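Revision sheet: structure tokens.
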Amino acid sequence: MQKRYISETSSFAKSFRCDHLNILIVCRGPIRMEAMEVFESLGAGYGILLSEKDSVTYPHTLAPELRLLTDPNRVHRIPDYTGANREERQERIGDIIDICNTYNYSHIFAGYGFMAEDADFVEAIENAGIGFIGPRSNVHRFAGAKDQAKKLSRKIGVTVTPGLDNITSVALIEKVGGRSGLEKLTKEHGFTVDSSLDDEDYAETILYESYKKGVSLISVEDLQNAAKKEVASILKENPGKRIRLKYIGGGGGKGQRIVTGPDQVPDAVMEVLSESKALGPLDNKNFLIEMNIESTRHNEIQLIGNGSWAIALGGRDCSLQMHEQKLVEISITDELFAEEIDKAKKEGSEKIAARLEKDRTTLKEMEDQAERFAEAVGLNSASTFECIVSDESHYFMEMNTRIQVEHRVTEMAYSLRFRNPENKDESFDVESLVECMVLCSAHADKLPRPERVLRHSAGGEIRLNAMNDALAPHAGSLIESWTPPVEHEIRDDQGIGIRNPDTNSFIHYHLAGAYDSNIALIVTYADSRKAMLARLADILRQMEIRGNELSTNKEFHYGILNFLLGMHPMLKPDTRFTVPYLSLVGTLAGEMEGVDIDYAFKKLSGSLEAEEAQVLSEKHTLIVRPLKMLFDNPHVMNGWIFRNRDVTFRFEGDKIAWLQNPVFVLKDLYDYVRLEGREAPPSQKIWDHDETLLDTAVQFYEDLARYTGKDARSNFAELDQLIRNGSGLPDMDKDLFERCKAAHIAWQAGLALLGIPFSLGKKVGCLDFHHDDDLKVIFPDKFNDPDYQKTSIRNLAPPPVASADLIVAASGGMFYSRETPTSDPYVGPGDHFDAGQPLYIIEVMKMFNKVMAEFSGTITECLVPDDGVVVKKGQPIFRVKPDEERKIETPEEAEKRRKEYTDSLLAEL
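Predicted:
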């Protein structure tokens, strides 16, 4: 394999060779594997850290990247990648520097997560004379800390969200009683503070001095009290609004909470600081208190710089997210908007074109502000300028001073061309942002400002996570098989897919949940947004990932991508959309549970004459198998409904009107649920006799089209009417027509069952979802109601069935009986609890989930006596005595209910 820059004939390109570097990779996840591949391509040496949780703590969790690393001297074992508190972090930083000195690593690459944005970490590396592949420490201090970034933004004219960015200073002033108290602290501890500063800046300087000297000045309780007052004041002036509390460091949705009233603030502050690992006495506990701007989209601008220049590489729309965790990321570029605007105008959609023009202008403004901000802080690597967008307004949220998880989306859209300033005919292109970070670190001074070059009009990524259908983390499963990537699929899977070199078999991997829920990043590209979404959906359609108790969000992604394709490729769901969307799918799941497809087919057959029933019986598996697969998952079902809405069917009153021939709809369904004819076990494809039937039916209608002059697939209502009620077709004798009529009736027999999913869609509200001229999603109010959301989403991950006197674990994870180590347990033996009261906490993949009581009762026995114990979904947690007798449905009652509901659907058809 040729190494980049080393084998170049151009002396200009060759001057950027990187084979002199030896890089220690201190991150994990997909970015670690990607970095290894990039460094290998550059001819650079590298090694990795390996934590106990990635090796020995759980079975089958050995870091899959090790399958490519055969030199044990390049693998450095540590307890964990970071520490639980300030002292442990400092110890880990020392360990990393010692490893670099012992093994002659010239540089460190931190990727994303852990300490990638820790200014103290980067400064320690710099002081040790080691290179850092990422922004320098002063960039982290001025841009990465959210409070400092907002102050700088206001100075240089970057629009920011309104709010408070110095709650620690406010709390300190309140605690010591004003300026005199601050000056007393300065004198008492020997701090150096400029006396000309105003009170808040004076207090902030004292706090930074205290961190350096190891002096603790404010407690969590001080912050809770101060924040409660500030939130009360903001809400008094802005009744009905919501307030976001957001820690100044970190990202990925962690360390954030939204409150609607002052009483919620103390718990929210504790959760923000706990999740950010900032509860230590010497940790910087500052967090932002911001007005939560409702109905916003999350857009971000990719930046790269060398310290003297900075360039924006378009944006990414990351609005589809849950619990502040991004799920789907798609590129937004000037070129894409230009193409989509032109397309909308040609289709006569002038209002949509006008909306896209405004979005194009907003993107340009965000890119301009991002470059201005990056140059102001001297950005010398990759970073992301994150914004929230509301209509035509946009607000800077924060700068992520690291490479982002979704950076590949930008790589699909643009490459960077570096041109020789002394010879414009000499240049080289860089398609990898990680590679560009290496160049910025190793050759910053001589690296010229690049040109951005369009690669593809659209790029996109989905995060394949260990989650259940309600998008709650799901730990503890084992991946036992996974099909290889298909054409156009870029799969960053941490190396999980690397096969056994001797047997070519898949190596089992345990998703223990020690770090986060991400399994892989699935990336693709195309020449339009619509083509990209369709390609991404098809990649997921073909992907098969199986295992013991395995649950992923693959079906969610498959469903929502088809939803977007069915609505509009440029649709603009906001950051709150996923919950109403899940509420819709949960409502659908509740209705689906009541349908018995086998019974429906049997009931339909029983209503026919003997000869007709015989014809239908031959199509039993042809019709029933794909429908039952569709009914296996509500996300897949929802995608099918939106994909077909107003394309293959519509409703005229309460009746389905087929816009396309149901035979072709059935053929599409086989493809959609991955049952098409292919090399696969019989259980995973259409059966031979069914395929013969389906192919014959399709051929019949294609032959018939020659007589009608109509497309075989479309104009079905007209064709059906012509054959059933007509006396003949042009150029067809009467005998042939009668035979065709009989064949048509026979081929259509039973296909009315294909309408059941669409009837369910109408019943639950799928057909009430639409978009306005601004491409915003409009849907019924009930899907925004918190109580309805809770009830409906519950259908997507129903709790395990338990006897009436047991409360069982809602999911697998780490069990905690109390809020903090010093708190009392939520409940104990003899305690009475009410419905909605917290009972315990399950930590799943670094997310702490309070589990609330679903009914009232009394605890009679605690079945998990210790905290920090890993429990499995369905494991008994408490033995209880309910206040009221709980009725549990018997299998016979469930069967009767499902038959009655199916009868009602058949009556509508």
